[in-house]
Known about the structure:
Layout: H1 12-24, H2 32-45, E1 49-53, H3 56-66, E2 74-78, H4 83-91, E3 95-99, H5 110-124, E4 130-134, H6 143-151, E5 157-160, E6 168-169, E7 172-173, E8 180-184, E9 197-201, H7 204-214, H8 237-248, H9 250-267, E10 274-276, E11 283-284, E12 290-294, H10 296-299, H11 303-312, E13 318-319, E14 335-336, H12 339-347, E15 348-351, H13 359-371, H14 381-387, H15 391-395
Parallel strand pairs: 2-3, 2-4, 3-14, 4-5, 5-8
Antiparallel strand pairs: 1-9, 6-7, 6-11, 8-9, 10-12, 12-15, 13-15
Amino acid sequence: MKIHLSPPDVGEKERALLQDAFDSGWIAPLGPHVDAFEREMCARLGVSNAAALSSGTAAIHLALEILGAGPGDEVLVPTLTFAATANAVRYTGAEPVFVDSTRASWNIDPDLTAEALEDCLARKGKPPKALIAVDLYGQCADYDRLAEVCAKYDVPVLEDAAEALGATYKGRAAGSLGIAGVLSFNGNKIITTSGGGMLLSDDEAMVKKAVYLATQAREPVVHYEHEAVGYNYRLSNLLAAVGRAQLSGLDEKVAARRAHNAAYREALAGLPGVDFMPEAEYGTCTFWLTCLTVDPAALGVDRETIRLHLNERGVEARPVWKPMHLQPVYRECRVIGGEVASDLFEKGLCLPSGSNLTEEQRERVCAAFVEATKGQRKGGLEACWARLPKEGDCFE
């Protein structure tokens, strides 16, 4: 059976709450589980207001629109991220400006962010409309430094915590660190509602405006009245019920992913040229995905050779995000730096990290990884290989 990268981890509690939502008659969008999901997430993250939405992308889009992003504006975005972050900027008519990562955390570089702010002001005569900071692979960006450089130009910081629910930054919860926070409950995320997302903020007016826009901007009158263009972005009551069950097990799911990361580090420690994404000392990472880089000069094989071998052995693995400045759709956009993100993409690999990954499956992944290097073994590789189960045990 194929080992997937990050499959949904659901069970009887999700089934029970979904059945409860079904039996209650609240089948149409909204309902008591939506309200409860928002309250419980606010309590978990220490935020005052939340809007449960159809996706994390919808949450970014709404936040940017409420912040006033539009044609002629620019928004700073890390280049090392999933396309949804940049796509939401384009939805508003604004243009993304991509900023490189720091090797210390793989997240957006605060020093280059300052450079990008000055560059935008010099070119446009005004600062960017916002900065979207992404908590990459479950690790928070350095929000104190980002807030410091953005405050100089009064640029709001929006937190894309789609990959980081359960992470912390200096004791504060991911999703609570910007003017607004964005979560994703896509099927591969730490918790899932099948599809869904949430916008959170201590700014009550901002969240109320998001709810208004997310419900087709319908005015509170008996007939259908609209004074603005809205969107069909609200989460359903059925999916919110699943989300409540998932949220109740968040700590266990994060602990499982962190345990996988620790086990991978131990099992592959003897491989020269293999380095894992660092965990920044300012916080706790969820390790939504365990990510590493492969130096072919040291290991003797490159990332792609290993990825293909894993695939042949029934293990799903993928490169780290292809930087936005290398994507065809965004090739004309400005980029500040880019070398770090490009190097991480060339050498980076994501390993199966789901919270329901078993120890036996994880051993299969490790054995297949080491097997891909067998023809090039040298130095500590033999010791690394000896720590793993025999090939027959892993692949029968």
